[in-house]
Amino acid sequence: MYSLALHILRDPGAAEEATQDTFFNVWRRAESYRSGKGTVAAWLFSILHHRAVDEIRRRKRREQNQSDKDPMTLDNPADDTTDPVRYTSAQFDRVRIKGALQVLRPEQREIVELAYYGGLTHTEISDRLGQPLGTVKTRMRLALRRLREVIGPETLE
Amino acid sequence: MDCREVEESYGAYLLGALEKRDREKVEAHIARCASCSVELREDAHAVTYLANAVPQVVAPARVKAGLMARIDAAPDKGLLESPAASLRRLGAALVRPSWTMAGAYAGATAAAVIAIVSIVWLNDLAGDTQVLQRQAEIRAQQSDVAMANVEQRLDEVESTQSEMAQKVETVANVGTRLDAVIAEQTALASQVQTVSTSGTEIMGMLKEARYLTYMAAAPDTAVNMIGPEEPAGQTRGMMLIAPSRTWGLLAVLELPPLPEGKVYQAWLIDGNEIVNAGVFVVDETGYGQTIVHFVGSPDRFENIGITVEPKGGSPFPTSETVLLGDF
């Protein structure tokens, strides 16, 4: 959980806060979990992911208000270039994820990275890649179908 | 949003790529549409792959400490409790029967969620070994309970099995008895058959014996002795004629026994005409008899002869006469 938050937010403090928030809210709202919605793990991850993505978008809005900096993405790790060690480990991270995402077709992989790890909306992705919104949405669906095949059926917890 | 629109947006929704407004619309639809909800569930599971694909980092201890501090400070504890306590509660809920199914289910589900969340949290933080130990203890208790249940079931199964084995044996015994009874019955049936056959023969013999007695006792019974034309040992015969003179009884003594497939046949001779008078066999003493029906009057016949013929008799004599006598 913390790992995902850290990877998306790239800031330990923010990642800690997001992780704590998620568990705190889960404890408060345990009854809101419905087993029909999926596994508990999927539920937890989705709450954390939304929290992290919301944070990223908040930051972007702040930054856009302040300057014209590009939103941080996997392919554009703004802070890492100043520190060689962090840059190398960031590179390693990218390679690792790219390895895991090899199961996806290149056009799907790109979109998934921008959306899931980068926190971009489908509109933003469509603009950035110059693809029609419908195509972006379709590729997202296909990517998840492919992942579904790879993982196999959901097992009971 | 209708099902089609939601379906198009699944991917974006699960990847977190929808704006807040669209995300809320999708969630509202899923809450009331069972089929869309099921679809989503499968894909949601796939997203965990992405969540786990990131480099794994151990969270600093202060993360957990901070969380516990927030929980302690929370005004409304409600379901809030420590991971260890929630695990104990889950363990208790699993082995204790519940009074209301619905209430228990809700309680158990919430407790299960908390327990599982606790496990995820604990694994994620890779921390507190004491709590992990407690986890293991609870699992051991649960598995003891499960084992006791299994042993009890095994005892039940064993006793059922031995009952079954006894039943099988009983059935097998009954089967054997039944076979024996059937065999007895078959034997009896064939004995009855034999008896009934003999009975018929005996009745036949009795009937003929009656004739002899009757004729011997009746007045006006004519008796004609028949002697061999040529001396043939002790062979001799007797014709008893009934008072009505329409029939008679031929009795022959000391005729030799015949081989299988041969019978004696008697003939009445009237001048040139020879008339069949009946077939008969002799017993072990050489005695034989047969009823003779006279066509017309017996006075027309002068002689009687006996030949050896094939079983069932012949239309006319085919062998030498063994006995010929005046009638």
What's the arrangement of secondary structure elements?
The complex is a heterodimer of chains A (157) and B (327).
Chain A (H helix, E strand, L loop, with lengths): L1 H8 L2 H17 L11 H27 L17 H17 L5 H12 L4 H8 L3 H19 L6
Helix pairs in contact in A: 1-2, 1-3, 2-3, 5-7, 6-7
Chain B lengths: L2 H12 L5 H13 L1 H19 L8 H13 L9 H13 L5 H25 L3 H89 L4 E5 L9 E6 L5 E7 L8 E9 L2 E8 L7 E6 L9 E8 L10 E6 L1
Antiparallel strand pairs in B: 1-2, 2-3, 3-6, 4-5, 4-7, 7-8
Helix pairs in contact in B: 1-2, 1-3, 2-3, 5-6, 5-7
Q: Can you characterise this structure?
A:
- The complex is a heterodimer of chains A (157) and B (327).
- By secondary structure, chain A is mostly helical.
- Helices cover 69% and strands 0% of the residues of chain A.
- Helices cover 56% and strands 17% of the residues of chain B.
- In chain B, β2 (236-241) and β3 (247-253) form a beta hairpin.
- In chain B, α2 packs across α3 (34-52) and α5 runs parallel beside α7 (129-217).
- Chain B has seven helices and eight strands, in the order αααααααββββββββ.
- In chain B, the strands form two sheets. Chain B has a four-stranded antiparallel β-sheet with strand order 1-2-3-6, with helices on one face. A four-stranded antiparallel β-sheet of chain B has the order 5-4-7-8, with no helix packed on it.
- The model of chain B is unreliable at 93-107 (pLDDT under 50).
- With 327 residues, chain B is an alpha+beta fold.
- Chain B starts with a helix and ends with a strand.
- Chains A and B meet through α1, α2, α3, α4 and α5 of A and α1, α3, α4 and α6 of B.
What percent of residues of chain B are in strands? 15-25%
State the shape of chain B. rod-shaped
Provide the succession of SSEs of chain B: HHHHHHHEEEEEEEE
Number of DSSP helical runs of chain A: 7
Overall mean pLDDT score of chain B? Answer: 75
The count of β-strands of chain B is 8
Oligomer: heterodimer
Percent of residues in helices of chain B comes to: 55-70%
Count, helices of chain B = 7
Which H/E pattern describes the elements of chain A?
Answer: HHHHHHH
Spatial extent as radius of gyration of chain B = 57 Å
Can you tell me the residue ranges of chain B where pLDDT is under 50 for at least 5 consecutive residues? Answer: 93-107
Taking the alpha carbons of the first and last residues of chain A, their distance comes to: 18 Å
Distance between the ends of chain B: 130 Å
Cα radius of gyration of chain A in angstroms: 17 Å
Q: Largest sheet of chain B at a glance?
A: 4 strands, antiparallel
Instruction: Supply the helix-strand structural class of chain A.
Output: mainly alpha
